[in-house]
């Protein structure tokens, strides 16, 4: 029987989401007949726990920093334990939003202009003509994101607060009006296009994970050629970053005033696997159950070559 160590929780700002993702994956894998052990890196020495557990495969259900950014992947490479999702370099690149954009640009993918600055500089004055977006350069799940609208006199004061507990490096980028789209890629194949809407100000952490915080429309009610383009761009982003397994690329689609503009925002190398997550929904749309998805991810596990 294949033994799978599911990593969940961790120390990032997305710990609670990871606990839910990991628990769901662990239960599904047990139902699929795997021998499963759950390990929380925040509660134990990860390397010692892995050596003791002796898993055949690691299912990495960690989200955010220290789990999605190449750190854990590097440890697993040293231990030579096959693991799910992307490898060291792809994970590190995709977690850093500006490095991701650099790769997108080199691959000819559509992006918006942006700069990376210290948070206190972003708090002191408008560094870009509003509207624009300010977000941590290496956090996920829309943690610490602010939209500065036209007419706002100054950036959010929270950016300069001594209570700020996220990274000091912030990305300031052009705001793109329109619609929020996302595309999962499994292996090398795009699954579907989902449109995300929310009654909140934007698709932030609460909208992503709170019950009723957002609405997922699958397939997205957009022209067929736009859906095809979004799928192709997501596949190209997956390849350009060197991703493996499952990834999910987020877009803005500006169809205001008769426009047609798709812009890539970021690629998630370890998308959420909670009951409200987008990848399981897109897999189900393609006829794959949650259990089958988890099994596929485990069977796709490897080390970098």
Automatic annotation (TrEMBL):
Residue ranges of the ATP-grasp domain? 101-299
Q: Which UniProt keywords apply?
A: ATP-binding, Cell shape, Cell wall biogenesis/degradation, Cytoplasm, Ligase, Magnesium, Manganese, Metal-binding, Nucleotide-binding, Peptidoglycan synthesis
Catalysed reaction, written as an equation: 2 D-alanine + ATP = D-alanyl-D-alanine + ADP + phosphate + H(+)
> Which residues catalyse the reaction?
14, 141, 277
Q: Name one GO molecular function term.
A: metal ion binding
Q: What is its main location?
A: cytoplasm
Q: Which positions in this protein are listed as binding Mg(2+) 2? A: 266, 268
Which GO BP annotation is one of this protein's? Answer: regulation of cell shape
Top-rank lineage group of the source organism: Bacteria
Cited PROSITE patterns: ATP_GRASP, DALA_DALA_LIGASE_1, DALA_DALA_LIGASE_2
Q: Where in the cell is it found?
A: Cytoplasm
According to its UniProt record, the EC number is 6.3.2.4
Q: Which SUPFAM superfamilies match?
A: Glutathione synthetase ATP-binding domain-like, PreATP-grasp domain
Q: Which cofactor does it need?
A: Mg(2+); Mn(2+)
Q: Which InterPro entries match?
A: ATP-grasp, ATP_grasp_subdomain_1, D-Ala_lig_Van_CS, D_ala_D_ala, Dala_Dala_lig_C, Dala_Dala_lig_N, PreATP-grasp_dom_sf
Q: Where does Mg(2+) 1 bind?
A: 250, 266
Pathway it acts in?
A: Cell wall biogenesis; peptidoglycan biosynthesis
This entry carries the following GO cellular component terms, namely: cytoplasm
What the record notes about the co-factor is: Binds 2 magnesium or manganese ions per subunit.
Q: What does this protein do?
A: Cell wall formation.
Family according to the record:
Belongs to the D-alanine--D-alanine ligase family.
Q: What is this protein called?
A: D-alanine--D-alanine ligase
Which species?
Rhizomicrobium palustre
